[in-house]
Amino acid sequence: MSSQKEQLSPEERQKRLQEEHYAKQVAVRDAQLAKLRQQAKQAAKRKSPATRRDVTTRE
């Protein structure tokens, strides 16, 4: 596979590097969102329904 990358034009190589970087950023973001969702779920279980309603209705 490295011989394939050596044959790429500088523009194509840059494009692929950017795509790989973007894909990694998206994967990290998705992992962070999954962790936050899990934390929110656990926090919701610990709170009473009245407390949860008070937190969500901020006027």
TrEMBL record:
Residues 1-59 are annotated as: Disordered. It comes from the Eukaryota. Residues 8-23 have a biased composition (Basic and acidic residues). Residues 31-42 have a biased composition (Low complexity). This is Uncharacterized protein. It comes from Fusarium oxysporum f. sp. vasinfectum 25433.
